[in-house]
Design goal:
The chain is α/β, with parallel strands linked by helices. The chain has 2 domains: 240 residues, Rossmann fold (3-Layer(aba) Sandwich), CATH 3.40.50; 97 residues, no CATH class. The protein contains 15 helices and 13 strands. It has a 9-stranded mixed beta sheet, sandwiched between helices. α4 links the parallel β2 and β3.
């Protein structure tokens, strides 16, 4: 691959990654809303399109309500009832997953003089069964449309219509809008119903039910309380006026029953029961977190560059040259064998003496042209061989060098003395 081809490939990869970063990263800044997570959470802490963070802030700033509590457990365990104030059970969600026990506890809570506000498309059947004879007959035919106009029945709010458009993925789309059929809403004798709001065709979506000493507000279009609706002027004013119908008190927001809770183990929940939370893929999670997105892109670019510049065939590793072996000892052994075979014992003795002196010089760094007592003392000190044994070796050398004919036995004895030195020296 040529140099220019590599440059072209790298340039193309960089441009592709920049385009991906633009469409999946920087393009989010041009969106109308805070996030592209369009899941219907209705969570008061969620600032996304379908969260209810703005409604929570409105409750805190209207001045009509006191302390704000968030309920994160079954009502029978956590819902408070202070006789000195009006406690308000507050719920906004796509479906209310109240258990039968929690529903009974809530209705007793309302009957004792407190308030309930529930905005949902799916009311608990047990709750409806406690306030009317036939829960299956209280809803009108569904309306499928992309927008609706809502209004209030109270004289203080008459003459104003509030427009709502269903927005999903920043596009206006059709939606199912639910309404009550107040003509078939047959309550028990001691209870009463009031219509508080409807659409421009007088289909009711906001009612109040007098229940015992308390009152229950029901709204069938929770979408109007989401952030995406309240970002519009009509949506914010409509939500504010809905809250004005609710008597002042302490709000207890139920976010626990936004999701279904069962008695199954956590392992069973993972198979589909669960708490209904949205699960993101790994790539979606990375794309929704700019630091992770940058890290992923840098890793990808690094891998591509490594493949281009390090993936080519590399030169084989050159093995190191082995150091030359010292053949001098082998040469001496060979020469000694020749002298021995030819019966030249005198030359062999001189060769052995020279080899012995070389050994002492190389091992103990003792060089001397004069074999005196000082030399023997140094060799004995460093080799840890008795001084007398060393003197005996050199005396044998001198004696055999002066002998005309050296016997094999004398040569063997000299060899044994030298070998004894080699084996025991240090």
């Amino acid at each position: 691959m040529s140099k220019y081809s590599k440059i072209a490939i790298v340039g193309g990869v960089v441009l592709l990654l920049v385009a991906l970063l633009y469409f999946f990263g920087f393009s989010q800044k041009k969106e109308t809303y805070i996030t592209d997570d369009w899941s219907m959470t209705y969570d008061p802490a969620d600032k996304g399109p379908y969260g209810t963070y703005m409604l929570k802030e409105l409750l805190d700033t209207t001045g009509l309500f006191g302390n704000f509590l968030e309920l994160d457990d079954n009502l029978e365990e956590i819902l408070e009832d202070d006789p000195a104030i009006n406690d308000i059970y507050f719920f906004v969600g796509g479906e209310n997953f109240l258990s039968d026990e929690s529903t009974d506890f809530l209705m007793d809570f309302i009957r004792s003089g407190n308030t309930g506000f529930i905005a949902t498309e799916e009311f608990p059947y047990t709750l409806l069964n406690l306030i009317c004879y036939d829960p299956d007959e209280i809803f009108a035919a569904e309306v499928i449309d992309s927008s609706q106009f809502f209004k209030f029945s109270h004289d203080n709010f008459k003459g104003k219509r509030y427009e709502f458009k269903f927005v999903h993925n920043n596009k206006i789309q059709q939606k199912t809008w639910d309404y009550f059929d107040v003509t078939t809403f047959s309550l028990y004798d001691e209870d009463s119903l009031s219509s508080l709001g409807s659409n421009n065709h007088d289909q009711v979506n906001f009612i109040k039910i007098r229940y015992g000493d308390g009152q229950l507000f029901l709204h069938s279009n929770p979408y109007v309380f989401t952030n995406v609706s309240m970002m519009k002027r009509d949506g914010f004013q409509y939500a504010e006026n809905v809250l004005r119908h609710v008597p002042p008190g302490r709000v207890q927001w139920d976010k626990y029953n936004l999701r279904y809770h069962s008695n199954r183990s956590s392992g069973d929940e993972d198979e589909g029961g669960g708490d209904g939370e949205k699960r993101e893929s790994i790539l979606q999670f990375i794309m929704n977190n700019p630091p992770l997105l940058w890290a992923f892109l840098i890793l990808l670019i690094g891998a591509i560059l490594y493949g281009l510049f390090k993936g080519k065939r590399m030169q084989k590793v050159v093995p190191p040259n082995e150091s030359k072996e010292n053949m001098s000892l082998q040469y001496i052994n060979t020469l000694s064998s020749l002298y021995l075979q030819e019966k030249k014992h005198n030359k062999l003795i001189k060769l052995k003496e020279k080899t012995f002196l070389n050994f002492i010089a190389e091992r103990y760094y003792i060089h001397s042209s004069k074999l005196d007592d000082k030399f023997f003392t140094k060799v004995a000190s460093k080799s840890h061989i008795p001084k007398d044994d060393i003197i005996a070796i050199f005396k044998t050398f001198k004696r055999l060098e002066r002998t005309a004919e050296v016997s094999d036995q004398a040569l063997i004895q000299l060899h044994q003395k030298i070998e004894n030195f080699y084996k025991n020296c240090r």
